[in-house]
């Protein structure tokens, strides 16, 4: 079936079977490969995108369920003030190692800061619990979120 | 300027005609300069582009450990430029030029060797490039070279100034010095600089970094494999009729090696669905059918009998005699389960035909030579028509390099069974990854330590049993001596502690599955046992665990001194031995691996419901000259998390030969909440750089175990901890 999506502000028509995870439409059809496949069962957070501003695991979201919604991915998150701040903080602190989970970490971090502009360490740990990093860059992700909060505050 | 692995320049590919000067080692092993079009394989370490851009050519792939930054730093230093101004490109596969100097004729990354290998090689290439550029400018301007200097990409002197890209044509005609003068350590501005300037950071925070999983070639097919359910099984027959109902399904073919059935489809989701729909009848006549409990009992029985191999100079008889004369003997039996690497990026590689009748493979290649040879052997294509494009790897921890070259062979076989007109991308799911073999083997240890009246160690009988990683494989000659696979006992063997009367025995176990190198390899289990036993012995002697260890590191050798120094540094910074808040406990561990010394103090808290929380790790590391201190800190932070996460709660188990763990809920990764803080201290030294990717892993588990035991609880000797009486907050 043909599905109309709003991805990163642009209207895109894709051919996909109902029940196809949004993740695979984003990666294989729209060729936006910044959103990663890690587990397919919403256990690692590597596939996190925003649907109407809410961090969402795209591997467990059917493509037909987001028709008409605003979907944004790592490729466009820098257009958002908080998104740009998180990316800047990540670079300032050299958060990444292998980097494969970091798109998802950043998308979740932006979600947290939109909800809670100055999160405590406990709030960070709780919100980011579903985003796994096998390189264990967690110390720096935590510090990166605090730094991004400062950048946004100005 | 974006690096060449980013999407933009990646898609631009070799089409862009840019003049480039390349300085490196030519195929005959001499330093050489040449010009060419960008993308031409000219085997350099340094490239200078006409616009003045400098690129370091990185021969050790980037899987997060920081090689793209580390090797770039060496080039930037000698070219008198800032690390933040240099770019990098991954080297093509070419064993003659890019081989790992420790591995012989093999281009690859492993054993934490990247910096130890490259420290002189890349500085020399950078210095040679600097000298050649200065000579070129002198020639073009007709002045004496001694009047000129190079800094930040600009050559100046004799009243003139020009950016380096202007001189690359002349530079290519100048003989490259074989032994250029390197900058003196006191003149270094980039090596040892604490800046945070990872070269791969930009790409990885905006989604532009390209990993194997991200390859999207025109007209590519995606392949997923229905794999054998247990070790030793083969495909008897299969039925793909249900797969034909999957939109996008193309075809299914059995792998010629019997290891599974390949489903080909138009996209990844269709490939996974089609794969799941294929019905396979397996031949289980030669399959592994044991369960983990049975294997565990067999390993524990093995360490209670006479060992098969002797891995120490001291014999079992001598150690036994020493133990008989001891005032007291403490003993413990250990079991450490199989572990998966579970890289964040599931395995994936893509192969495509090239216009000249050859093939190219896109892969986060840990050993590009292996990709190269695999394609040559399976496809019969001449070596010079084969290319390997190395991409970012989404973690490796050893997984992407094994005796069977598993996913590389699979990708090539999957391509070989098609008409080879369409690119084939092989994709592993997380279930494939966790259940797909190539694990850290399971091991049992049994240790008996004898102490005299003064609490001094007089004898140590240490037995290890487990499946050998190297035996019967291509790396056997490298690892196995006199029957002992050093990767089974390293860390107990070759330990700097001066322990008298120490016997190490090894018994090989029958294969239960495919096994592989896993971050820190043998040290991952040997350090757990050695360092918890040092605490057991210290307690029996009634001594403080830090001073007890220091007694066996008298500093008679540099090895002992360096190990003692990191221990003291960590203990001092953590305030080891000083009062802690109620319910808080310290545990210590120190271990040498890959030429590097790392000590860690783990502080835990235990609440009234007995939940354990890791409050803080304080680490000290001596890895020789710290080329990029911040990358070193990051590696130690990550290695601690990787090491302790598995000790806490992970294991791969078999039920009737079939792997139980299927996805992350069954193999729970370390999460952010698990460790509240990590602090890393680096020893200042002029020793040559040694490894840093792995050495932070071995001490992390025993430091936690010793902290838990310090609370008065029993030492956890069977892992993972969560299956053996420990609950984490």
Automatic annotation (TrEMBL), chain A:
What's its EC? 1.3.99.16
List the GO molecular function terms: 2 iron, 2 sulfur cluster binding; isoquinoline 1-oxidoreductase activity; metal ion binding
As given in the record, the signal peptide range reads: none
* Keyword Metal-binding part of the UniProt annotation: yes
The record, for Gene3D superfamilies, names:
3.10.20.30, [2Fe-2S]-binding domain
Q: Which InterPro entries match?
A: 2Fe-2S-bd, 2Fe-2S-bd_dom_sf, 2Fe-2S_ferredoxin-like_sf, 2Fe-2S_ferredoxin-type, 2Fe2S_fd_BS, Beta-grasp_dom_sf, Diverse_Oxidoreductases
Q: Which UniProt keywords apply?
A: 2Fe-2S, Iron, Iron-sulfur, Metal-binding, Oxidoreductase
Q: 2Fe-2S ferredoxin-type domain: from which residue to which, for each copy?
A: 1-77
Entries under Pfam families matching the protein: Fer2, Fer2_2
Please report the name of this protein according to its UniProt entry.
Isoquinoline 1-oxidoreductase alpha subunit
Which organism does this sequence originate in?
A: Litoreibacter arenae DSM 19593
Phylogenetic placement of the source organism: Bacteria, Pseudomonadati, Pseudomonadota, Alphaproteobacteria, Rhodobacterales
Automatic annotation (TrEMBL), chain B:
Which Gene3D superfamilies is this protein grouped with? Aldehyde oxidase/xanthine dehydrogenase, a/b hammerhead (3.90.1170.50), Aldehyde oxidase/xanthine dehydrogenase, molybdopterin binding domain (3.30.365.10)
The record places domain Aldehyde oxidase/xanthine dehydrogenase a/b hammerhead at 206-286
The entry lists its GO molecular-function terms as: isoquinoline 1-oxidoreductase activity
Highest taxon of source:
Bacteria
Per UniProt, the keywords (alphabetical) are:
Oxidoreductase, Signal
- The Enzyme Commission number assigned here is 1.3.99.16
- Identify the stretch annotated as signal peptide in this record: 1-32
Q: Name one Pfam family in it.
A: MoCoBD_2
Q: What is this protein called?
A: Isoquinoline 1-oxidoreductase beta subunit
> Which species does this protein come from?
Litoreibacter arenae DSM 19593
